[in-house]
Design brief:
Distance between the termini: 32 Å
Helix content: 25-40%
Bound molecules: S-adenosyl-L-homocysteine
CATH class of the largest domain: Alpha Beta
Largest sheet: 10 strands, mixed
Order of helices and strands: HHHHEEEEEEHEHEHEHHEHEHEH
Number of helices: 12
Length: 366
């Protein structure tokens, strides 16, 4: 990574270094620039990424003098909990967080048998324009910094007091449209000096930015790649996802094959089923033909209808039939369990309703 890129990645908008986005090595350099001993970096790093500190005041084993220096010379990025919706059915918690500049994002905490999972946002809003998705309705406000993505996990850990073993980058935003910050986030999250979450328990979901997928395959990470496919051919895919006009399905699937070949990690294909749009037996047959050789797994998601669009969920029999056809062709498929049904606004809806009701007041929101 070039020096300039590092600079951009670890600096907040008012120009102060964003210490929570720094690697331990970068933090050492930064502290020695302030005339501090390098070993202080490990202490500070521990406060930020193990103790998940909200403030410099908490960092009691750092001298008052160093804390004052940090307050003046750096920014400790935090996100603030504005709201949390708790499901009465399965304990799923949906959080609305405020970023330091007043933008808002959402994150979700889910309990599974295999452990707790957090779904993080990678951007405030999104510019990909997928037809069924609420996150994109107001466009992209801005990219998140690595610290702001990490903080979603940290605040949820602090709020619930529970461990988090899985992280999915499937909230609002297109992670490969914010590539550097997202890869930095993954390294900090899975680093042994921080939360030390296994890379195998991290999933990145993309709408299919081919150059990003190819670049990710070379990062040496063992995370799972999830591709939002949602269609068996380009014609249907284009009607749902504008990005399909830029990257044809063949190229996207090629990039996925390359990801599997280089990382050994099976790709997950996400397929949101919308009644009468992409859920026919012919659609399932065509999908099976297209992805049959890729050793992938299909995750079928009953589409979550949003007010602004007219999609309806496929009926249960259609969903089951779709799955059976894939399985007949040797492709494993699961139907995603709907977590937090009672609080389950679709992706980006909590944020959108907050923005809509606060729009008159302005203040950083779009
Ligand atoms: N930009 C990334 C991650 C965001 S969304 C991506 O496109 O993969 C995570 C998944 O939820 C994606 O597969 C997305 O297409 C899907 N999704 C978004 N809104 C949905 C809705 N209303 N119903 C069903 N799936 C939806």
């Amino acid at each position: 990574m070039s020096e300039q890129m590092n600079e951009l990645q670890t600096t907040v908008p008012d120009g102060k270094p964003d210490i929570r986005s720094m690697t331990l090595a970068e933090l050492r350099d930064f502290l020695s620039g302030l005339g501090e001993k390098p070993f202080r970096a490990a202490q500070l790093y521990r406060w930020m990424h193990v103790q998940m500190a909200d403030s410099l005041e908490e960092m009691t084993n750092l001298s008052r003098d160093l804390r004052a220096k940090l307050a003046a010379e750096a920014e400790l990025v935090t996100v603030k909990k504005l709201d949390v919706l708790v499901s009465g059915i399965d304990g799923t918690r949906k959080y609305l967080f405020e970023l330091p500049d007043g933008n808002v994002i959402e994150s979700v905490f889910m309990r599974y048998q295999h452990g707790n999972s957090v779904c993080v946002s990678s951007q405030a809003g999104c510019r990909m324009g997928c037809r069924f998705c609420a996150s994109t309705l107001n466009g992209l406000a801005r990219n998140l910094r690595a610290s702001e993505i990490l903080e979603q996990v940290y605040q949820i850990r602090r709020d619930t007091g529970e461990r988090v073993s899985n992280v999915v980058i499937m909230g609002s935003g297109e992670p490969l449209d914010n590539y550097d910050a997202v890869v930095r986030f993954i390294r900090l999250l899975t680093g042994e000096d921080g939360q030390n979450i296994s890379q195998r328990n991290v999933t990145l979901s993309t709408c299919g930015l081919v150059p990003g997928i190819r670049r990710l395959a070379g990062e040496g990470l063992s995370i799972t790649l999830a591709l939002s496919l949602h269609a068996p051919n380009d014609e249907i895919r284009k009607s749902l996802m504008p990005i399909a006009g830029t990257y044809p399905m063949e190229e996207v699937l090629d990039a996925c094959a390359d990801y599997f070949a280089r990382t050994g990690r099976r790709v997950t294909f996400e397929y949101s089923l919308a009644g009468g749009v992409n859920d026919s037996p012919e659609n399932a047959e065509e999908l099976a033909r297209r992805i049959g050789k890729l050793h992938g797994h299909v995750n079928l998601i009953p589409v979550n209808p949003i007010r602004e669009r007219s999609f309806v969920q496929s009926a249960r029999p259609e969903i089951n039939r779709f799955r059976e056809i894939l399985e007949k062709h040797g492709i494993t498929a699961t139907v995603r369990r709907e977590m937090g049904r009672d609080i389950n606004g679709a992706c980006g809806q909590l944020r959108k309703s907050y923005i809509d009701t606060h729009a008159a007041g302005g203040g950083g929101q779009r």
